Give the backbone structure.
Amino acid sequence: MTRMKTAAMIAVLAAGPAMAAENATMSADIANAEGEPRGTIEATETPSGMMHVTIELMDVAEGTYGAHLHETGLCEGPDFKSAGGHLAKEGEEHGVLSENGPHVGDMPNIHIPENGAITVEYFVPELDANLIGDEDGTAFMLHAKADDLKSQPSGDAGDRMACAVLAAKQ
Ligand SMILES: [Cu+2]
């Protein structure tokens, strides 16, 4: 009996590293289509179940821009279409102004001031490191226009301006 328990425990331990550790952190460098750095993103699990996301942007023209997590962790310029649509669960529609919204990957617009730099923090429900680190990964996307928070499927936020592939932080 004791031996069986030990065996089971070893199996659990062996499975451990493949699963996201508690308070796992995912991070990435953000770059535009020319590969020029535009900042960083870090997403950390919290005991509440919400993900704490911190985005630092720099060298972005003053304005208001849509920001989302996209379903595929692939940033191929110049259009970044490789990142696919928004990270979303079954049946979710885009935007907090939609009855069936938002997508898990929908985040508030980011208002860049005149100096081109800002740091924002979000608490994102329904998001965790396993979802970000799923088979095809996850990308952060900064758009060229503001997200209207209701147009399907992506808030009419325009071109994809800067992208980042999230990965487990070492
Ligand atoms: Cu987007």
